[in-house]
């Protein structure tokens, strides 16, 4: 008999954890009518994971993108592979995974028939491509792209608990906080910007999802879902937070990655004034932020 690995169980675990320019491709800038291919990416926290596990994960993502049902790899890697797969958008399209009878790999059981599956993949690719284009991918700096993606997600997506996965949130522009953060991270990954999914845990043990990403050479916390709720995407109150600022905002005692290891302290306080940001405008590369105190704070991307 096949040993069945239930994606439903793993997805439930993931939901409990989650309960939200780049290297340039010439073809993108020369012909915007050509849809770019998705890059197979993963949470940057796992960048040093064993190469064999990463290659097996990449095989699974390729299989999901192309409706392939059998993948061969060393199944002793399955825990590491699952850690990567369940932080990707594409687990949402899979009902379950089972080991092959000879234990030489896995079989994927998809939720939809091949026609519907491929339509959903095409829709997802189109959405990602359109958003990246609107955010200036290939024409702006990495830092401007991060700001543009944050502003796009906060200004065009709504928080809605009926949509629980990153995949659904990209398609419908609605999602739970974790999925909103996950969408933000995925768009950064597609532009080769380092980003991680994070949980902040307060003194009562309540965990809340957020993102961590590189901006202007430093790691910061970001929470586009909270930005939606607080400023309807017009401000930057949850943009580029260091640990001290995030602790003050969320009353959090700790910040952890999806594998529950602690995040190192983020000390840079360059953007601490953004906790009072209520609106902003662009003048070239200059970002002029209007604060609640009626003062302005300016930085460049």
SSE layout and pairings?
Layout: E1 4-6, H1 7-18, H2 26-30, H3 51-66, E2 70-72, H4 78-85, E3 94-99, E4 105-110, H5 114-134, H6 142-156, E5 158-159, H7 166-172, E6 174-175, H8 177-190, E7 195-202, E8 207-215, E9 218-222, H9 224-231, H10 243-250, E10 252-257, E11 277-283, E12 286-291, E13 296-300
Helix pairs in contact: 3-4, 6-8, 6-9, 7-8
Report on the architecture of this protein.
The chain is α+β, with helices and mostly antiparallel strands. Helices cover 38% and strands 23% of the residues. Helix 6 runs antiparallel to helix 8 (177-190) and helix 7 (166-172) crosses helix 8. The radius of gyration is 19 Å and the shape is globular.
Strand order of the largest sheet: 1-3-4-2
Tell me how many strands there are: 13
Task: Tell me the major beta sheet.
Answer: 4 strands, antiparallel
Question: DSSP helix count?
Answer: 10
- List low-confidence stretches: 1-33
Structural class: alpha+beta
Mean pLDDT: 89
Q: Approximately what portion of the residues adopt beta-strand conformation?
A: 15-25%
Return Rg in Å: 19 Å
Q: Label the overall shape.
A: globular
**End-to-end C-alpha gap:** 57 Å
Secondary structure: helix percent: 25-40%
Oligomer: single chain
